Amino acid sequence: MGSGKSWTGQRLAALLGLPFVDLDAEVETLTEMSIPTLFSRYGEAAFRDLEAQALRQFPAGRAVVLATGGGAPCFHGGMDWMNEQGCTVFLDPSPTILLARLNAGRAHRPLLGTTEELAIFIANKLAERRPTYEKAKIHLPIEDPNADVARLLYDRLQPTTEHH
Ligand SMILES: Nc1ncnc2c1ncn2[C@@H]1O[C@H](COP(=O)(O)OP(=O)(O)OP(=O)(O)O)[C@@H](O)[C@H]1O
Ligand SMILES: O=C(O)C1=C[C@@H](O)[C@@H](O)[C@H](O)C1
Ligand SMILES: [Mg+2]
């Protein structure tokens, strides 16, 4: 949540010359509803079902950069499924970076409450989800808020060339 999946994914796709897909946007397109509306009208469980269904539209044969929603790896076996299909990345910014970003974008994130609850919410959610996130094939801790994350990732994804 706010780790930079959509932001970085878009830039990484441009570097790789691949289409970019945002799973949250995909769910919104499929249902013709915004995520906050889906949550409030049908509840989180219904959203998780739709999200899992949308994720399965992208098996290994479809070369895309896919930014999931923050919870997608953690429900309906999302993480294991993605690991079977392709390369997975855990973007892991420091709590300071996360808090600054989430505070700025709270209107679009229905799971968040008041500002005072935010820091506790982040810590709890991350602790709960980290074991699943850490199953990703690439783990990228981010300490510098100005790091060019897409470029770092692009470099990590290139096959290493040995020079003799
Ligand atoms: N590498 C970055 N450099 C500068 N700003 C960034 C970077 N990554 C993310 N941001 C900022 O943080 C905000 C949140 O990032 P983003 O929407 O990509 O998170 P997300 O992981 O997709 O979150 P969610 O799980 O809610 O979909 C962006 O709108 C952008 O303003
Ligand atoms: O972390 C989460 O559970 C969520 C993150 C967003 O990307 C959306 O998928 C939705 O708001 C839920
Ligand atoms: Mg996103």
UniProtKB/TrEMBL annotation:
<dbReference type="GO" id="GO:0005524">
    <property type="term" value="F:ATP binding"/>
</dbReference>
<feature type="binding site">
    <location>
        <position position="129"/>
    </location>
    <ligand>
        <name>substrate</name>
    </ligand>
</feature>
<feature type="binding site">
    <location>
        <position position="48"/>
    </location>
    <ligand>
        <name>substrate</name>
    </ligand>
</feature>
<feature type="binding site">
    <location>
        <position position="70"/>
    </location>
    <ligand>
        <name>substrate</name>
    </ligand>
</feature>
<keyword id="KW-0460">Magnesium</keyword>
<dbReference type="GO" id="GO:0004765">
    <property type="term" value="F:shikimate kinase activity"/>
</dbReference>
<keyword id="KW-0808">Transferase</keyword>
<dbReference type="InterPro" id="IPR000623">
    <property type="entry name" value="Shikimate_kinase/TSH1"/>
</dbReference>
<comment type="subunit">
    <text>Monomer.</text>
</comment>
<feature type="binding site">
    <location>
        <begin position="2"/>
        <end position="7"/>
    </location>
    <ligand>
        <name>ATP</name>
    </ligand>
</feature>
<feature type="binding site">
    <location>
        <position position="24"/>
    </location>
    <ligand>
        <name>substrate</name>
    </ligand>
</feature>
<keyword id="KW-0067">ATP-binding</keyword>
<keyword id="KW-0479">Metal-binding</keyword>
<comment type="function">
    <text>Catalyzes the specific phosphorylation of the 3-hydroxyl group of shikimic acid using ATP as a cosubstrate.</text>
</comment>
<feature type="binding site">
    <location>
        <position position="109"/>
    </location>
    <ligand>
        <name>ATP</name>
    </ligand>
</feature>
<dbReference type="GO" id="GO:0009423">
    <property type="term" value="P:chorismate biosynthetic process"/>
</dbReference>
<feature type="binding site">
    <location>
        <position position="6"/>
    </location>
    <ligand>
        <name>Mg(2+)</name>
    </ligand>
</feature>
<dbReference type="GO" id="GO:0008652">
    <property type="term" value="P:amino acid biosynthetic process"/>
</dbReference>
<dbReference type="GO" id="GO:0000287">
    <property type="term" value="F:magnesium ion binding"/>
</dbReference>
<comment type="similarity">
    <text>Belongs to the shikimate kinase family.</text>
</comment>
<keyword id="KW-0057">Aromatic amino acid biosynthesis</keyword>
<dbReference type="InterPro" id="IPR027417">
    <property type="entry name" value="P-loop_NTPase"/>
</dbReference>
<dbReference type="Pfam" id="PF01202">
    <property type="entry name" value="SKI"/>
</dbReference>
<dbReference type="GO" id="GO:0005829">
    <property type="term" value="C:cytosol"/>
</dbReference>
<keyword id="KW-0547">Nucleotide-binding</keyword>
<keyword id="KW-0963">Cytoplasm</keyword>
<protein>
    <recommendedName>
        <fullName>Shikimate kinase</fullName>
        <ecNumber>2.7.1.71</ecNumber>
    </recommendedName>
</protein>
<keyword id="KW-0418">Kinase</keyword>
<dbReference type="InterPro" id="IPR031322">
    <property type="entry name" value="Shikimate/glucono_kinase"/>
</dbReference>
<comment type="pathway">
    <text>Metabolic intermediate biosynthesis; chorismate biosynthesis; chorismate from D-erythrose 4-phosphate and phosphoenolpyruvate: step 5/7.</text>
</comment>
<dbReference type="GO" id="GO:0009073">
    <property type="term" value="P:aromatic amino acid family biosynthetic process"/>
</dbReference>
<keyword id="KW-0028">Amino-acid biosynthesis</keyword>
